[in-house]
Amino acid sequence: MRAGAIRAAAPGARVKRAAALVAVAFLAAACAARRPAPVSERAPMPPEATVPQPAPPPEAPPPVVEKPLPTHAVKKGETLVGIALQYGLDYRELAAWNNIVNPASLKVGQVLVIAPPPGASVATPLAPATPAAPAGTGPVATPLVAAGPPIEGRPLANTKTAKVEPRAQKLPYSERALAQLSAGDAPAAPDAPSAQPASPPPRPAGTDSENIDWTWPVKGKVTAPFTESSKGIDIAGKKGTAVRAAAAGRVIYADHGLRGLGNLIIIRHNDTWLSAYAHNDKLLVKEQDEVKKGQKIAEMGSSDADQVKLHFEVRRQGKPVDPQKFLPPQ
Known about the structure:
CATH topology of the domain at 222-325: Glucose Permease (Domain IIA)
Distance between the termini: 165 Å
CATH architecture of the domain at 222-325: Distorted Sandwich
Radius of gyration: 50 Å
Order of helices and strands: HEHHEEEHEEEEEEEEEE
Largest sheet: 10 strands, antiparallel
CATH superfamily of the domain at 222-325: Glucose Permease (Domain IIA)
Structural class: alpha+beta
Oligomer: single chain
Number of helices: 4
Helix content: 10-25%
């Protein structure tokens, strides 16, 4: 009975097993028949266009702060030449920087700039007065000039009290010109070339080197040493003894214009050094002359002094220094 039941159940189990196998095979076939999903390649996205940014505005340069120019207030008794000597300048430069035409017009308290103003107009250079013609008979064949103040006393531009433009015309002498000038109808002169602005005198070639090759201006005994008040040394000698340039340079003053110094010569050696030679009897050079070391420039004398002597000064950037510290041994 049990064996029959087993045989009867066996076919059913085989049927179930076969059905399971069929189901597995069907699933395997279905999986094999599936195709992979299509893959599509996409082109890369173009980069986003960058909008150019405007350049930042340039930074404004810091404002240029101009340093005030050094000045000097004119004191009683001072002259243009003396002030220029104080600061190691050529008095023509000082006059040009301050638009001074007449050096005698300085006033006490007047403030002068003692350095070149940037871009400033330059004054007319100082000019000596025209000497009077010697007396004689007959007409003198010199140019006729309409009446007017001397050039040294004229202002640099028109003012309420004085007019400088147009200026007088110079005409060659003739009877006709004389008659026309007397009648106030001067003939027109040909156009003259436009006047160029004058410049301060050129400075001597060289640098601010401290290495100046000095020599004694005269050989003699030093009778007065350097002090802060004397500003130089006094050297004894005989009248007519040659006074020589202590170093090469350019003569920036040769005249009798500083009280107490007599016939004076000032030589600029470079932008740093000046030398001065006072109480001379006779001057042998003139302003703007280039001189060599040891060149005879004057003869000893006693102008504005009680005895024959040479007062000799050396100035560094206008400040007096002891010449004996720079001169070689005698």
